[in-house]
Write a structure and sequence with these properties.
Blueprint (H helix, E strand, L loop, with lengths): L1 H25 L3 E2 L1 E5 L5 E3 L7 E4 L4 E5 L4 E5 L16 E3 L3 E3 L4 E3 L4 E5 L4 E5 L5 E6 L3 E9 L9 E7 L3 E6 L5 E8 L7 E2 L11 E5 L4 E5 L5 E6 L10 E6 L8 E7 L12 E6 H6 L7 E5 L5 E6 L3 E8 L6 E9 L26 H31 L2
Parallel strand pairs: 1-26
Antiparallel strand pairs: 2-23, 3-4, 4-5, 5-6, 7-10, 8-9, 10-11, 11-12, 13-14, 14-15, 15-16, 17-18, 18-19, 19-20, 21-24, 22-23, 22-27, 24-25, 25-26
Length: about 400
């Protein structure tokens, strides 16, 4: 009977393989399309607790109401946001939550924006008022920002940039205290994100693109790095992988992907000056699942999906307008967000020595207090010694 079934089983397997091959051949990639026009658009983040998305227009911030597809100026009044200094002011929206060991937490919906050439992070409160949150001495420029949403970095704010001796990754707590994760990271910049649980060996790591090599990289809390995957996409300055984002819980029930297409006159990819969008149905039809990583190029917004379990696989899923000049994060928003995945264990220490960056305000304050305590102790000891001398016959 088994030998009689064997040809039928083999025929069924061959038929299934042929059907799969035919379906893959017929499957067309999804296509990014302009959602709203904004020539200076450089990044997008969120969503906030009210569902609105924060958009960086370079010198100004906006809130995107997805139900009406309208942009509303945000934090532009007295004491508000004054711009990113003409650089690429990428941003991250706080999901809220306590920072273990810091005795404080990040308030939900606060926006943290880079001032890249000043090596500063600006905090913009939900009320629209802005102030400097951290200034990183020893760092020449910043080019990436994301919150640790998985917990391995202690729910700190993570920034990447260029230091005096190489590329740096820095973790900043809710008091503005900065700690070096690594000062010898490989080249990387653009939209970065922390991998959720379930993303194979890279769960909880900071994941970042390198446009020059076309690789997707991971930085662990101990400062070590690894290659997640080779994108297989064109690589090079203003051409290679630029933005990435993870597909959130609830996305399968509806949602949208957003990517900034910056107007860049004179570039081989001059941009359309708009916020690009892809709906969940198109991405799901292209084979994307919740928990996957999407990565898009700066030149042309060509997009791949990366799925990691015991190993990582890469597949193309979308194409953008040929002139597109992608910037910043690739943001995915679920219409009806599912429950967030549980936190991963906090790493025992950040970086090889978990050392604070020299020159941050918190570092100077701690050093000043320590010095004052030593001086006060010496003075007290001197007074006690003099008192004993006077009492001696």
């Amino acid at each position: 009977m088994l030998s009689g079934m064997r040809p039928a089983v083999i025929a069924a397997l061959i038929a299934a393989w042929l059907l799969s091959a035919f379906t893959d051949a017929e499957r067309q990639p999804a296509r990014w399309a302009g959602l709203v026009h904004l020539p200076g658009v450089v990044d997008v983040g969120g969503p906030r607790s009210d569902g609105q998305v924060v958009v960086s227009g370079g010198s100004r911030l906006y809130l995107l109401d997805r139900s009406t597809v309208t942009l509303m100026p945000f934090a532009g009044g007295p004491g508000g946001y004054t711009g990113g200094g003409g650089d690429e002011p990428y941003l991250a929206v706080s999901p809220g939550g306590r920072v273990p060991g810091a005795g404080c937490g990040f308030a939900p919906d606060d926006v943290y924006v880079l001032r890249p050439s000043a090596a500063e992070v600006v905090r913009v409160g939900a009320d629209g008022r802005a102030r400097r949150f951290a200034r990183l001495s020893g760092v020449q420029s910043l080019n990436g920002i994301a919150f640790d949403t998985a917990g391995r970095f202690g729910h700190r704010l993570l920034v990447i940039g260029h230091g005096r001796g190489g590329n740096v990754v820095v973790a900043i707590d809710c008091r503005g205290q900065a700690t070096t994760v690594t000062a010898s990271a490989p080249a990387m910049e653009g939209g970065i994100a922390v991998a959720p649980p379930g993303f194979g060996a890279f769960a909880g790591d900071l994941v970042a693109p390198d446009e020059l090599s076309g690789r997707i990289l991971a930085v662990r809390p101990d400062g070590s790095t690894a290659v997640v995957a080779d994108s297989g996409l064109p690589a090079g300055q203003d051409l290679g992988v630029e933005g990435l984002g993870f597909v959130p819980p609830g996305f399968a029930d509806g949602g949208i992907a957003l990517f900034s297409d910056r107007s860049t006159p004179g570039s081989p990819h001059p941009g359309t000056g708009s916020l690009l969008a892809l709906d969940a149905r198109s991405l799901l039809g292209a084979g994307v699942r919740e928990g996957d990583l999407l990565v898009a190029t700066e030149g042309g917004a060509r997009t791949i999906v990366v799925r990691c379990s015991s190993s990582c696989r890469v597949a193309p899923v979308a194409e953008g307008p040929a002139p597109a000049h992608g910037e910043g994060h690739l943001l995915l928003v679920a219409d009806h967000p599912g429950p967030p995945p549980p936190d991963l264990p906090v790493a025992s220490g950040l970086g090889s020595a978990a050392r604070p960056l020299p020159g941050t305000p918190a570092t100077y304050l701690a050093a000043g207090l320590s010095f004052a305590a030593v001086v006060a102790g010496l003075i007290l000891l001197g007074l006690l010694w003099m008192r004993r001398r006077r009492r001696s016959p």
